[in-house]
């Protein structure tokens, strides 16, 4: 479960970096890395959506910030 959380957070960090590159330069790194394949492009975004949902789920269930006050 810990490895899954790390993988999901890493996936979202990569999405954030690539999104920032696209926002500031207009170059779509994800489309470039998927060689223009629409299927691969959508699979990456679907994986990021599932990663975001799992990250929210793990924050609710495991309460990592419970002891901080």
Short description:
This protein has helices at residues 2-25, 29-33, 38-62. With 69 residues, it is mainly α.
Please tell me about this protein's structure.
It is elongated and about 45 Å long. The mean pLDDT is 86. The chain is built from three helices and no strands. Helix 1 (2-25) crosses helix 3 (38-62). It has 69 residues and is mainly alpha-helical. The longest helix has 25 residues, at 38-62. It has helices at residues 2-25, 29-33, 38-62.
Summarize this structure as a short list of keywords or feature phrases:
single chain; about 70 residues; mainly alpha; about 0% strand
Number of helices: 3
The N- and C-terminal alpha carbons lie at a distance of: 26 Å
The helix-strand sequence is: HHH
Q: Average pLDDT across residues?
A: 86
**Quick one: biggest sheet?**
none
Strand content bin: under 5%
The number of strands is: 0
Which radius of gyration do the C-alpha atoms yield? 15 Å
Tell the overall outline.
elongated
Classify the secondary structure makeup into a structural class: mainly alpha
Catalogue the unreliable spans. Answer: none
In helices, the fraction of residues equals over 70%
């Amino acid at each position: 479960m810990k490895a899954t959380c790390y993988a999901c957070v890493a996936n979202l960090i990569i999405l954030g970096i690539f999104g920032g590159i696209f926002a500031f330069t207009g170059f779509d790194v994800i489309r470039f890395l998927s060689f223009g394949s629409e299927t691969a492009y959508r699979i990456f975004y679907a994986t990021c959506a599932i990663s975001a949902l799992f990250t929210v789920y793990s924050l609710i269930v495991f309460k990592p910030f419970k002891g901080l006050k």
